[in-house]
Specification:
With about 100 residues, the chain is mainly α. It has three helices and no strands. The chain has a domain at about 40-100. The longest helix has about 35 residues, at about 25-60. The radius of gyration is 26 Å and the shape is elongated.
Length: about 100
């Protein structure tokens, strides 16, 4: 230890102490976690969208396309996907709420 350290008084709380890592710290950690989850969900959604589009392109490559039918199928698919995403978000929110308050 240097001499400077031995002469300094021990800290009594204050900034940077254990007490300052209170609600703000937890809130920021929670926000970071939520942002990361949101980013991951967005990336996953984009990957699924690209895969779905590729599947549609491959399926319709050699056959004549009934545009109305294709549009209808795509509409149903997007509705199902939105419902699933809404459900996932609900589950994530409930889990995050439970983590924060219990």
């Amino acid at each position: 230890k240097s001499k400077q350290h031995s002469k300094m008084k021990a800290s009594k709380g204050g900034a940077g102490g254990r007490s300052s890592k209170g609600r703000n710290y937890r809130d920021s950690q929670f926000a970071l976690k939520r942002r990361a989850e949101k980013r991951d969900l967005e990336e996953q959604r984009l990957e699924e969208e690209i895969a779905a589009q590729r599947k549609i392109d491959e399926a319709s490559y050699w056959q004549p396309v009934d545009k109305a039918d294709r549009k209808h199928k795509l509409k149903l698919y997007t509705q199902q996907k939105k419902a699933m995403e809404a459900h996932q978000n609900k589950v994530l929110n409930q889990a995050a709420y439970a983590e924060e308050f219990y």
